[in-house]
TrEMBL record:
<dbReference type="InterPro" id="IPR016181">
    <property type="entry name" value="Acyl_CoA_acyltransferase"/>
</dbReference>
<protein>
    <submittedName>
        <fullName>GNAT family N-acetyltransferase</fullName>
    </submittedName>
</protein>
<dbReference type="GO" id="GO:0016747">
    <property type="term" value="F:acyltransferase activity, transferring groups other than amino-acyl groups"/>
</dbReference>
<feature type="domain" description="N-acetyltransferase">
    <location>
        <begin position="1"/>
        <end position="138"/>
    </location>
</feature>
<dbReference type="InterPro" id="IPR000182">
    <property type="entry name" value="GNAT_dom"/>
</dbReference>
<keyword id="KW-0808">Transferase</keyword>
<dbReference type="Pfam" id="PF00583">
    <property type="entry name" value="Acetyltransf_1"/>
</dbReference>
Length: 148
């Protein structure tokens, strides 16, 4: 996928895909190791997700060379409940295997029950829990990993 694919979606339906999401994607889409995949209904993007294969920005450390990080899953609200999340997970797992990756993982907020349910249905298991603590304006959150 390219930025043009995402820009077209704002014109199609700016409620589910807006400039804030577009700016987030612009930061990553052309970086080495990042790949975006989508599911379309005709010309309209209805679900997308991304893979990161060389560096984990979430915890700022190099990843194991055999791993791929699945992130930025999103399904248009009008198309939820149709199994698209599971399909976009399967597409990215397939692409990760083609790139020689043997492990895929994702971080899911505990409040995002739908995403957690989708990953569990695909065989993913919770390994850690992240706890956030607000510590100030310049460094708004501190992360703490807790093994499950």
């Amino acid at each position: 996928m390219t930025m043009d694919d995402f820009r077209k979606q704002i014109k199609f339906d700016g409620k589910w895909f807006n400039n804030r999401k577009l700016k987030q994607i612009e930061r990553f889409i052309d970086q080495p190791g990042y790949s975006y995949y989508g599911i379309y209904d005709g010309d309209n993007l209805i679900c997308y997700g991304a893979i990161l294969t060389n560096h984990d920005n979430f915890i700022n450390r190099k990843m194991d060379p055999n791993t791929a990080y699945l992130f930025d899953d999103y399904t248009n609200p009008y198309h939820r409940g149709k199994g698209l999340h599971r399909k976009i997970i399967a597409i990215r797992e397939y692409e990760a295997r083609k790139q020689g990756k043997s492990v895929t993982f994702a971080y899911v907020q505990s409040s995002n029950r739908a995403s957690a349910k989708g990953f569990k249905r695909c065989g993913y298991v919770a390994r850690i829990k992240l706890i956030y603590k607000q510590i100030g304006k310049n460094r708004p959150f501190k992360r703490k990993f807790i093994e499950l």
